[in-house]
Amino acid sequence: MSKRIPTERQVLRCIYDAYEPFFPVEGSNIGKVMVAIDIEAVAKKLGTDKHVLFGYLYYHLDHKYRYQTGENSYVHLFAPKAGELRHAINLPYLAAILAGQDQEHSKFAWSLGVSLVALALSVGAIIAQVVSSQ
After folding, report:
1. What is the pLDDT along the chain (134 residues), one digit of tens a residue?
2. Is 116 contained in some domain?
3. Which residue range is the domain that position 33 belongs to?
4. Is residue 115 classed as helix, strand or coil in its secondary structure?
């Protein structure tokens, strides 16, 4: 039986919900935005493989969202090692990405809802016309 592959939004939401209560982290500058996550625990919550989750965070999501701030300086979403932290996530950045995704999801849900109402009204009008013409 293969394990399921969670969506980007599910991964980010799971991590945010699990680690937001522990933010901000006291300590060095890197610890103030980067939070160590337990890849195995997050993977278990998501019902996926820990290696798949690591690869998804490191090779896909970090690559997708990291951006350059200077000649040799980047802001990362995820880092396998950040200072003394292992498997670190930039929690404020993750929150910003997740907020944007939640907004897009909300727009989609509203659009879908309006479309379904319009479809129901159209079908109702067709049925009413067929019934009244008999």
Report:
1. 457 789 999 999 999 999 998 777 666 655 578 899 999 999 999 999 999 999 999 999 999 999 999 999 999 999 999 888 899 999 999 999 999 888 787 777 788 888 888 888 888 888 888 888 87
2. no
3. 8-105
4. helix
The Cα-based distances of 79 to 25, 36, 110 in angstroms read: 16, 9, 35
Number of domains in the chain: 1
Query: In Å, what is the CA distance from 78 to each residue of 2, 7, 51, 111?
Result: 26, 16, 15, 32
Whole-prediction pTM value? 0.74
Residue in 106, 103, 86, 94 with CA at minimum distance from that of residue 33: 94
Tokens found for residue 25: 């982290």
> What are 85's strand-pairing partners?
82
Specify if 80 maps to a domain. yes
